[in-house]
Design a protein that fits this description.
Layout lengths: L1 H6 L4 H16 L4 E5 L2 E6 L2 E8 L3 E6 L8 H4 L4 E2 L3 E5 L9 H13 L7
Antiparallel strand pairs: 1-2, 2-3, 3-4, 4-6, 5-6
Helix pairs in contact: 2-4
Length: about 120
């Protein structure tokens, strides 16, 4: 993952990606960080819960199950998101959103053995 981070341009996308990465690793230190499909992936024993990638116009956080998370709409207010991808644009202040809670709820589901895949 150091190689992935080293390749990122030093701009707002790297800043946002590092904030989200820290939220994941702080709350779920048991997750392993690996590179799969040219993205950072977080999981254990081939059971991946998140993927993180810097795109041209946003940072993508891939989660299997946005609609399985209670109050996801409220927690992700302000974000553009699809079925399993949350797009973090430059204008978003992550700290002012419910993203950290969303990540924690997803990890809690995963920890309790619930299916968080797509």
């Amino acid at each position: 993952s150091k190689e992935y981070l080293a390749l990122l341009e030093e701009d707002w996308r790297k800043e946002k990606l590092l904030v989200i990465r820290q939220m994941i690793l702080t709350y779920a230190p048991e997750l392993e960080e690996v590179i799969r499909y040219k993205m950072l992936n977080y999981g254990k024993d081939n059971n991946y819960i998140f993927a993180l990638n810097a795109q041209k116009h946003y940072v993508s956080l891939y989660v299997g199950t946005i609609d399985k998370i209670e109050k996801a709409e409220t927690l992700l207010a302000g974000y553009n998101y699809g079925k399993g991808c949350i797009r973090v644009k430059k204008s978003i202040k992550i700290e002012d959103t419910g993203l950290e809670q969303f990540i924690q709820k997803t990890v809690d589901m995963w920890r309790s053995g619930e299916d968080t895949s797509c």
